[in-house]
What we know:
The chain has 11 helices and 4 strands. The termini are far apart. It has helices at 58-63, 65-75, 77-87, 93-96, 99-106, 111-117, 122-128, 131-141, 147-156, 158-163, 166-189, and strands at residues 8-15, 23-29, 32-38, 52-57. The protein is of the alpha+beta class. Strands 1-2-3-4 form a 4-stranded antiparallel sheet. Helix 2 (65-75) crosses helix 3. The longest helix is centred in the C-terminal third of the chain and has 24 residues, at 166-189.
Amino acid sequence: xxSWLPETLxxxxxxxxxPSKDYYQLLVTRSQIIFRSWKISLRSExxxxxxxxxxxxxxxxxxxSRLQVQVALVFGSRILxxxxxxxxxxxxxxxxxxxxxxxxxxxxxxLEDIARLSQTSRKFAKLCVSDKLWEQIVQSxxxxxxxxxxxxxxxxxxxxxxxxxxxxxQRQLRKKQQRQEDQQVLEYLS
Length: 190
């Protein structure tokens, strides 16, 4: 696996299907799969049961159908498919890039593409509405950003500022400037 990848590629925890109260953890590292289980029960015969742990290399996990069935029962077939892909070296490298780098890349997309990208995953949905992204977009589309514009953007958000037309922005800037002047007068009189 690529050396720039973090040691832990994927981790999920969950509870077994009802009526079970057992607790499970699945951890995928660069070199192995770790499946842990904890028996949760009020019955006296289970009180001395120790937590279970199965460690397998990626190759062994691909061949271990019993462990795959356990993972599918606890976490579902989609998680099993994802883990099998990780073990096969099929990684989603785009999801693993840093947020700052992704924001820089996204800022070059068309608005329609940003809207589509926001629907692909929770991570991209969060990034596509972030103030950092819309600040970059506003900066690339405006010649200059005055301190008053920056202050207004902090109040209403960069995305809102981008989609607000110039007349509305000028009106909001005047109102903000008037409020600041009024506040200065009040402070002076106090």
